[in-house]
Design goal:
Layout (H helix, E strand, L loop, with lengths): L2 H28 L6 H25 L11 H6 L5 H38 L4 H27 L24 H20 L2 H5 L5 H11 L2 H17 L4 H50 L4 H11 L26 E8 L7 E8 L1 E2 L5 E4 L5 E6 L11 E2 L4 E3 L6 E2 L7
Parallel strand pairs: 3-5
Antiparallel strand pairs: 1-2, 4-5, 6-7, 7-8
Helix pairs in contact: 1-2, 1-10, 2-4, 2-10, 4-5, 4-6, 4-10, 5-6, 6-9, 9-10, 10-11
């Protein structure tokens, strides 16, 4: 097989494995009964990506990378209808239309998956909820615009594979400026908007610089998708002769990057759980080796104590992908992101949005409700809300990065 064929099918295979791992991670954490819309849409996107890969492969393998572009008027006039080259160019033009449609559908499905994920992430924040709804509308409107530009950019429709006379650039599916610029512009706009949804939460997060940088990088992956989109656009426009092959190959690469970036937040919790278990296994193995080497039980215990961290281990997972962890408090004052437990079996620390009651008086004073539960009323000098983000550890303590840990306050729920 040629290098291109090996590449595109390898990329799709890796994407399928990543989506499979994501599905397993979600199943192991929330169970299949609590799957969300994006969990099912991601599987559909994987199938469409597979069809897109097949279309990209067909461009080179079946039609020799040809379409109705890259020909002089003389070549068009002398090309015999029904000849092998004529069939290649007509078939290649048709597969380009199919490829563009599959590429757009796969990419916009991945955008919807990210929007659904962000709706869980920002649950409880009114302003953020509105921004997610805008994202849904923007994704739907831009997808319709892209599909219409591909299907209606050249009319009558049969001119998309017309050889002679030259139907014009807008009827060359492989290198049509309409097919290139309209999707890339809407792709960039929607990706930029999606990136702005989680950034305010993460930028204000009261986290260590290392963890904040990790999360910012994770949710800034759209930059790589935009780079691929711009590069694909540049190569197609500057290579009219080989534009058909360029369009198929870079469409597959761009979709691959989008699949990986869209699934990283879901795989992250499972990855850290595996690392944690591996670390515990290594520590247990070292302890067993020390005992077999004749080390006294007291010395082995001392060795084990030295291996243990001075503070309880925090499960640094990213369960933003876990639904049902968000709790809403009374009032709309201070929002924070805190840890939540999934239960005894999973015992995974989640990140959820809660709201604390803010009073307008000066100072801080705890109050008690009728049922004996204590609530903390945070006040400011001006009676206005403040915005902080905290991450809780798996030991039931809230870590804010400053000073000793304090017991987690109970969530104020409706």
């Amino acid at each position: 097989m040629d290098p291109f064929t090996i590449e595109v099918f390898t990329l799709w295979g890796v994407s399928a494995v990543v989506i499979g791992i994501r599905t397993y991670a979600r199943w192991s954490i929330v169970g299949i009964r609590k799957f969300q819309v994006d969990d099912y849409l991601m599987i559909i996107a994987c199938m469409i990506y597979g069809l897109e890969t097949g279309a990209g492969y067909s461009v080179g393998a079946l039609f020799r990378g040809m379409a109705n572009n890259g020909m002089t008027d003389e070549q068009r006039a002398t090309l015999v209808p029904g000849s092998q080259e004529w069939n290649w160019r007509v078939g290649g033009s048709k597969i380009q239309l199919i490829g563009w449609s599959l590429w757009s559908t796969a990419l916009w499905l991945l955008k919807i998956c990210m929007a659904v994920f962000y709706s869980r992430l920002t649950d409880g924040l009114t302003v953020m909820r509105d921004r997610v709804r805008i994202a849904y509308v923007a994704i739907g409107v831009t997808y319709i615009a892209v599909i219409l530009s591909i299907m209606l950019g050249c009319l009558p429709f049969h001119k998309n594979w017309q050889i002679y006379p030259d139907p014009g650039n807008h009827c060359h599916p492989a290198v049509s400026l309409i097919n290139v610029y309209v999707p890339v512009v809407f792709n960039l706009v929607t990706d930029l908007y999606l990136m702005t949804i989680p950034m305010p939460l993460l930028w204000r997060a009261n986290l260590t610089p290392k963890r904040k940088a990790l999360l910012l990088c994770m949710f800034s992956g759209g930059v790589f998708i935009m780079m691929c989109s711009i590069l694909r656009c540049y190569l197609i426009v500057t290579s009219p002769i080989t534009g058909a092959q360029q369009a198929g190959s870079w469409a597959c690469r761009e979709t691959f990057v989008a699949v990986i970036i869209g699934n990283v937040p879901m795989i992250y919790p499972l990855f850290l759980r595996v690392i944690k278990k591996a670390g515990n296994t290594i520590n247990a193995s070292r302890l067993g080796s020390s005992k077999r080497s004749g080390v006294s039980s007291g010395a082995a215990m001392e060795l084990n104590e030295r291996d243990k961290p001075s503070k309880p281990l925090r499960k640094k997972v990213n369960p933003l992908s876990i639904p049902g962890l968000t709790t809403l408090g009374r009032g709309d004052s201070e929002e924070r992101i805190i840890g939540s437990r999934m239960g005894k079996e999973n015992n995974i620390v989640g990140i959820s949005v809660v709201t604390e009651v803010t009073s307008t008086s000066h100072g801080h004073s705890p109050t008690s409700s009728a049922d004996g539960r204590h609530y903390q009323h945070n006040s400011t000098a001006y009676g206005g809300p403040s915005y902080t983000v905290e991450v809780a550890g798996g030991d039931g303590y809230t870590h804010d990065g400053h000073g000793p840990r304090s017991p987690r306050r109970p969530d104020v729920t409706r």
